[in-house]
């Protein structure tokens, strides 16, 4: 969430067709370029495109009141979460406060607990959330690694020595149905206590595969041997590689180990495989996101050379809260 507080004259339009999704992505990209942190999660956008969350675009009326102005803010509400982002050049005019009030008044916000993120160092957004009855409940660290610390580019992840009884293979498009189902099942197991990551469905996964950044070789699956149609997936690691204007960035998108396979060094092995795969892309930037409260994971990444680059906080509004009960400046 990114904005400053104050009233504003704002129009809202609801919909999630290709045009509105593209507009939301544009707004998010502008904010990320300015702020240095993604303002809306991939999961929120995917579920909005599926109709599982509601996308609302906000615009300021033109002076003549006749022409159709370009949207300057995007909000997504549903699945007990709310996301809001305002373009950098439209901030400070109260658009965020007005948009947040509108989103909280929608039926999709519901009477139950509602969560939202303030990304990076963002006192204005945190003040806005505080005024709307939210309190911080969780932290998220973005960690970065100096690309010079990556292993040699010639290191093939599949050539690394896997823990005994396991084999590392890249996602296989020829066995897409098997691999997709196995990944979704293992991911749900690994993230059973995670409000977003653990509920990804096969449909969600297939939408992510359709993203322009997806590369099957970047999704590494650790199978219990022998690898057959009914083989069990013990864990996986997924690298998100983004190329833009000649620059390459790699992010550890998702890494997880089934609890039943814990204590066997699989997490350390998957991290080594991740770094080997990242090195093959020769990136200029290497990042990952991790729960701030997950001390063991943070320490594992620090031992590999990662340092904390930014901190975000998730905020929660308690159940049965009324939008009119408290909306302070």
From TrEMBL:
PROSITE patterns: GNAT (PS51186). InterPro entries: Acyl_CoA_acyltransferase, GNAT_dom, Mycothiol_AcTrfase, YpeA/RimI_acetyltransf. Residues 13-156, 166-329 form the N-acetyltransferase domain. Coiled coil: none annotated. It comes from the Bacteria. SUPFAM superfamilies: Acyl-CoA N-acyltransferases (Nat) (SSF55729). This is Mycothiol synthase. Its EC number is 2.3.1.189. PANTHER family: ACETYLTRANSFERASE (PTHR43420). Pfam families: Acetyltransf_1. Keywords: Acyltransferase, Repeat, Transferase. It comes from Leucobacter edaphi. It is an enzyme of class 2 (transferase). Transmembrane segments: none annotated. One of its GO terms (biological process) is mycothiol biosynthetic process. One of its GO terms (molecular function) is mycothiol synthase activity.
């Amino acid at each position: 969430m990114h904005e400053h507080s104050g009233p504003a004259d704002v129009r809202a339009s609801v919909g999630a067709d290709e045009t509105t999704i593209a507009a939301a992505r544009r707004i998010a990209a502008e904010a990320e370029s300015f702020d240095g942190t993604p303002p809306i999660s991939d999961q929120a956008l995917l579920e909005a495109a599926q109709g599982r969350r509601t996308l609302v675009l906000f615009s300021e009326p033109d002076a003549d009141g006749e022409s159709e102005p370009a949207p300057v803010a995007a909000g997504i509400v549903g699945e007990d979460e709310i996301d809001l982002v305002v373009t950098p050049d439209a901030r400070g005019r109260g658009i965020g406060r007005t948009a947040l009030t509108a989103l909280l008044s929608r039926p999709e916000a519901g009477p139950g607990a509602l969560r939202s993120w303030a990304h990076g160092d963002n006192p204005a957004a945190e003040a806005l959330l505080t005024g709307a009855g939210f309190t911080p409940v969780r932290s998220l660290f973005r960690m970065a690694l100096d690309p010079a610390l990556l292993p040699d580019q010639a290191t093939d992840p599949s050539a690394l020595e896997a823990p005994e009884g396991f084999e590392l293979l890249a996602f296989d498009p020829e066995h897409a149905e098997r691999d997709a189902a196995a990944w979704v099942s293992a991911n749900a197991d690994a993230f059973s206590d995670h409000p977003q990551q653990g509920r990804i469905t096969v449909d969600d996964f297939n939408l992510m595969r359709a993203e322009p950044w997806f590369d099957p070789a970047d999704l590494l699956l650790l199978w219990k041997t022998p690898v057959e149609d009914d083989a069990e997936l013990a864990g996986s690691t997924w690298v998100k590689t983004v190329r833009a204007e000649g620059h390459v960035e790699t992010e550890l998108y998702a890494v997880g180990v089934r609890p039943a396979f814990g204590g066997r060094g699989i997490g350390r092995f998957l991290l080594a495989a991740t770094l080997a795969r990242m090195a093959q892309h020769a990136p200029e930037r290497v990042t990952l996101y991790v729960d701030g409260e997950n001390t063991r994971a943070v320490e594992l990444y620090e031992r590999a050379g990662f340092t904390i680059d930014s901190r975000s906080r998730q905020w929660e509004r308690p159940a049965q809260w009324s939008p009119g009960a408290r909306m302070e400046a």
